[in-house]
Amino acid sequence: MDAPIRVLVLGTGQMGSAMARLVLARPGLELAGACARRPGRAGMDLGRAIGLDRELGLPVVHDLTEALAQSHPRVALQATCSRLAEARDEIETLLRHGVRVITIAEEMACPAATDPDAAAALDRLARDRGAALLGTGINPGFVMDLLAIALTGVCAEVRSIRVERINDLSPYGPTVLESQGVGLSPAAFRAGVEAGRVAGHVGFRQSIRLIADALGWAIERIEERREPIVSAVRRETPFVTVEPGQVAGCLHTATAWREGTAAITLVHPQQVRPGLEGVVTGDRIEIDGSPPVRLAGSPEIPGGQGTAALAVNMIPRLLSAAPGLHTMADLPVPAAWLGDVRNRVRDRERLGDPAEEAGR
Amino acid sequence: MDAPIRVLVLGTGQMGSAMARLVLARPGLELAGACARRPGRAGMDLGRAIGLDRELGLPVVHDLTEALAQSHPRVALQATCSRLAEARDEIETLLRHGVRVITIAEEMACPAATDPDAAAALDRLARDRGAALLGTGINPGFVMDLLAIALTGVCAEVRSIRVERINDLSPYGPTVLESQGVGLSPAAFRAGVEAGRVAGHVGFRQSIRLIADALGWAIERIEERREPIVSAVRRETPFVTVEPGQVAGCLHTATAWREGTAAITLVHPQQVRPGLEGVVTGDRIEIDGSPPVRLAGSPEIPGGQGTAALAVNMIPRLLSAAPGLHTMADLPVPAAWLGDVRNRVRDRERLGDPAEEAGR
């Protein structure tokens, strides 16, 4: 049998570590190394860095070129950032080495949504090097776009789409909480929105673009609103305490207009401990079409766990795909392939040496 | 711009007619003809045959070879039967002419489930002729397999999958009602199951195989049960009257065993007027995994309308696919592409002349 598929993980935070642990557990994959942006992590044993209680005998590396030279990966999983601009350098380095890249950077779920030139350049680079690139994640990448798209498949007509995702931020640390304005006064929240510090959800434009492209819709404009979710009660997590009158999270909505009507509405209130005020978390997709379709689940599909699983589950799909930039909407549906990943790659050649393939 | 994509419809019953009407409505598609198995329909104007209040100036044709010669289709939609054995001749004729085929014959959603040799032969024939073949439909093809597969994509582990579809047979005519034993006494129902007249749902083996193949599961055995749904009340539809004590439908279940546990459980009670006994129709998918995932919708996605839409919506997907036999699980997710279908076909060459392509 072919050698295991060597996987390099970029990022050793919560998401990168979760992905690395999944790679270790999946037959046919080999965790070939990890690269950390924080220099302080360099040299640390990889096992310890990703939260195992054993050493793996591989050091975490700070420099990506060094990591590539040491690990010879076939696939890289990027979990270092949210924005295309921050993700791009690493991705280009990886593609230039013929490595196939799966990133959970939110803007990479559909890079054409914010930077069509960058998307085209990444697509060209990937094709030139016989590599491939995919952005994925629970949201964007699954709940608010891919699932909605799939459900339109049963419709003869679609008038509008509405997706609501009510989730619980309680497991998340300071970076996420700050981006949602958790713990601020309502006035500070509004000032934070103005200043761009309270960003809310990153991904609406990507989800809207994925849906619009799948349906052939021309979107005229997108409206976003970020409102404070002001708590009536005390809400406590390991990372923050919200007093009554303070902000427990951000109600972020986006509406995409087409031919004068609200064609796509995405509603995403994110807060800590929603249950304390009786808010039930969950995902809900509604297609106003012929036939109408509604599907909902509670609680919400967990964002962290789900995103890590999606990234690893898409490895065989991306290894079977043509070179170039992909989105979740143009590859076969994700699936938890639980067998040996090598048996799932359609074109066996793609298991070969990346450098050799890039040279063809 | 290229000429519209010519579509031939096989079958002018309820499903074939619904598909033909959708083809007429979708920009970039042209309804090139229809072929009816019942000789009595031959010569009838196609518009009248599919329930329009206008003529289309094209006659319904009985002989498939004649229909091909007259209509020069790029794509054929087959809505003539449920079983692979009944579907195969027409499909082979179409593929031999280089026509891409989408069929709603239930067993064709995964022909390898009941006849791997036939599946392999169809795959070879399609590849030889530069054609492609897909079986689709709401069930099998979407609710009990594709959606479940997609939801496992967010899971690191999957222990078991359960899908329940409670639907309403009230819109259906005598053929469907007889296959579900509607109107029989419980004793006659059981005798009908024994004799194969009460078949219940056709599609469990296909859905199970699609799921198992997507997850890399080896299924050891499949158990099916068909139980009468005995009505406590009088249930009336345009096609049947069920008296109290008679059978209102069939509770058909299938369980797929793997490593000694029930890995896949499919529950599909089909009956007329379930609401008269307070039964709420709907679809429900439950993944027992890490994380667990549950998604449900009520009422159920309508089978007839949804199947017709899926077949037409998959046209651009199949035209963009490589030659060969496909399943819903190996193509990109379905989507209601509402723009011009010609703009959705990735490889423009595939819009060319089928005969020419077959000769390559």
CATH class of the largest domain in chain A: Alpha Beta
Structural class of chain A: alpha/beta
Q: What is the C-alpha radius of gyration of chain A, as a whole number of Å?
A: 21 Å
As a percent range, the share of strand residues of chain A is 25-35%
The number of strands of chain A is: 14
Number of helices of chain A: 12
Oligomer: homodimer
For the largest beta sheet of chain A, what order do the strands appear in spatially?
2-1-3-4-5-14
Question: What percent of residues of chain A adopt helix (DSSP H or I)?
Answer: 25-40%
Q: How many distinct folded domains of chain A?
A: 2
Task: Give the termini distance of chain A in whole angstroms.
Answer: 24 Å
Order of helices and strands of chain A: EHEHHEHEHEHEHHHEEEEEEEHHEH
- What name does the CATH topology of the largest domain in chain A carry? Rossmann fold
Instruction: Please name the fourth-level CATH homologous superfamily of the largest domain in chain A.
Output: NAD(P)-binding Rossmann-like Domain
Largest interface: A-B, 53 and 53 residues
- Largest sheet of chain A at a glance? 6 strands, parallel
**CATH architecture classification name of the largest domain in chain A:** 3-Layer(aba) Sandwich
Whole-number mean pLDDT of chain A: 94
